[in-house]
User: Which sequence fits this backbone?
């Protein structure tokens, strides 16, 4: 796979023309092969890019402009339809290349299982990496209906790989009794809320390499209805933006991130890809140093 050549499709606003000069690389993971409720997140990366054209390139929150950050949109990773195992291998190989080239990988999903091979690749590059997980769902099952490769399992796989002491989960408001019990016993678990608990733990994460995975369904469906498994009772888009800014203003060293589970077909208003695009802008301006 070649990602160092200009992508012929639509790109995220203000993307640079050269992979070599980029500090960060945006890439798409158009996969929804294992979803258990509503498919459609494979169309998320393209729609986030399209929605980005409506953004201002200046962030008044951070007083920074996209011209100040060199990033390259590598397009979508070509994934074999329906083949979860092979798709994950391709994602892992692509992110390994980005990291080996010194890039900050910023992934657009796709279902949340897509984050698992990214976490594996980041762990290879940063063996002491800490995972920050922001989501409505625990994703802590060992399998779902007999399938170990499921959008319900990536955070459990991450705990097994990294150790629960290096996994911080925020905003979760849905899961089995067993998942909640496991989370409380084996990892740093802050259900229901995001901003305030994130601010409390930032000092203990200072200086450490951190990977952040954001499932768009952490937002209440009033703010992001376009997702496969919407869950009422979530946070506001303003709170999620404030969380991104709190991390940006801290001493945490973010080494990569992703935003997953945008399923545009369920949102004719397009507010879900619009908010996702804004989150991408703030991540680029706040986390890519």
Assistant:
């Amino acid at each position: 796979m070649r990602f160092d050549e200009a992508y012929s499709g639509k790109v995220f606003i203000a993307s640079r023309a050269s992979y070599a000069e980029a500090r960060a690389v945006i890439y798409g993971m158009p996969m929804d092969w294992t979803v258990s409720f509503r498919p459609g997140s494979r169309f998320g990366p393209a729609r986030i890019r399209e929605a980005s054209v409506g953004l201002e390139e200046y962030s008044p929150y951070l007083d920074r402009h996209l011209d100040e950050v060199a990033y390259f949109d590598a397009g979508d990773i070509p994934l074999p339809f329906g083949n979860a195992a092979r798709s994950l291998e391709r994602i892992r190989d692509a992110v390994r290349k980005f990291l080996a080239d010194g890039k900050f990988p910023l992934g657009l999903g796709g279902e949340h299982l897509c984050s698992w091979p990214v976490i594996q690749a980041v762990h290879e590059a940063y063996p002491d990496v800490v995972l920050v997980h922001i989501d409505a769902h625990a994703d802590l099952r060992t399998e779902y209906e007999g399938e170990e490769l499921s959008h319900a399992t990536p955070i459990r796989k991450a705990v097994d790989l990294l150790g629960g002491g290096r996994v911080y989960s925020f905003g979760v408001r849905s899961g089995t009794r067993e998942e909640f019990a496991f989370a409380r016993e084996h990892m740093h678990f802050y259900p229901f809320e995001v901003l305030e608990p994130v601010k409390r733990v930032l000092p203990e994460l200072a200086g450490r390499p951190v990977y952040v995975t954001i499932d768009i369904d952490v937002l209440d469906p009033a703010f992001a209805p376009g997702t496969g498994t919407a869950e009422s009772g979530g946070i506001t888009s303003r709170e999620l933006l404030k969380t991104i800014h709190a991390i940006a203003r801290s001493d945490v060293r973010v080494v990569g991130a992703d935003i997953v589970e945008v399923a545009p077909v369920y949102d004719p208003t397009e507010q879900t890809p619009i908010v996702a695009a804004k989150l991408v802008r703030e991540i680029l301006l706040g986390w890519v140093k």
In short: The chain has a mean pLDDT of 96.
